[in-house]
Request: fold
Amino acid sequence: MKMTFRWYGKDDPVTLENIRQIPGVEGVVTAVYDVPPGAVWPMDSIRNLKADIGKHGLSMEVIESVPVHEDIKLGRGRCAEYIENYKENIRRLASVGVKCICYNFMPVFDWTRSRLNQPLADGSNALVYYKKDVEQMDPKKARLPGWDTSYAPEEISGLISAYQKLGAEGLWKNLEHFILEIMPVAKECDVYMGIHPDDPPWPVFGLPRIITDEKNIDRLLGIYDDPHHGLTLCSGSLGCARKNDIVRMVRKYSAMNRICFAHVRNVKILEDGSFEESSHLSRDGSLDIYEILKAYHDTGFDGYVRPDHGRMIWGEQGKPGYGLFDRALGAAYINGIWEALEKENKDGNSKENRF
Ligand code: DNO
Reply:
């Protein structure tokens, strides 16, 4: 397991100096942020990013994300050109030593929450998804930080109706086309592509969502049978649906070598199926983080891991979900469990390391 930490580049209030001081963190997970979705990333930007990170003693082996343009997901417009650009980005990133790329195939909106700073009982603030709020939300007006802000409200309505027409099967068809196009390039470059599950894993605002459960993940992996075509297994995204047994999924897909990147976080599922993001600690949420990490350990997981969203604690102001303190506590907690697992199982697993 290689511990990493997400960093949003020079504008991130969390600095590389901060990240370097978190015990056990070897690398950052980042992206070139000033290029619109679909475009080729300038080689200079990629090299400068890597150099900056390297100066701080950290590696840049994971990119999150290379965004997939809506034309690719909708199979229309400049889809073919954007797919070629995507391949070029894979080649460029591989040329500087990137080994894993995270992406998602969610229509229009990435992760969706209804409140970004809901006070919890302990006085911290967290991201929450209250079903009642979401029913009242107008996706054309709301703006959340995970969402691509390059669309005007009029464009959003058009996109929403295009996806409603496309439906889930249409989206599958376009995902299959995308995977079959990019995977031979990724394989040749020895880059592991890890698709991020839909967050939350159910349709939102009437838009189809397909990377949602074990059945669909089996279907997804069947599209191209190679470990380079894999998952960013996000425990909190899949885990906010009660039907998903995360420990079982980790055990299964990690044993198959189909997880290249692990996002570890906890969520507390409420009675009506709403959820609040909690601290990483097992007892604070609905997921058993010890059992999840044990499943990774038992299956010889050698991929990248990062603590995921944190609450805002100790008065920190920052990017929702991505402050320093609570995520650093998450990293320390994961490190602690992992060390215990390593020491209790000294014989380890004899799998060959990929990374
Ligand atoms: C949320 C993140 C996601 C993820 C993308 C991957 O905090 O995990 O936004 O980066 O879905 O493309």
Notes: Residues 241 and 273 are 7 Å apart (CA to CA). The chain has a mean pLDDT of 95. The first strand starts at residue 2 and ends at 6.
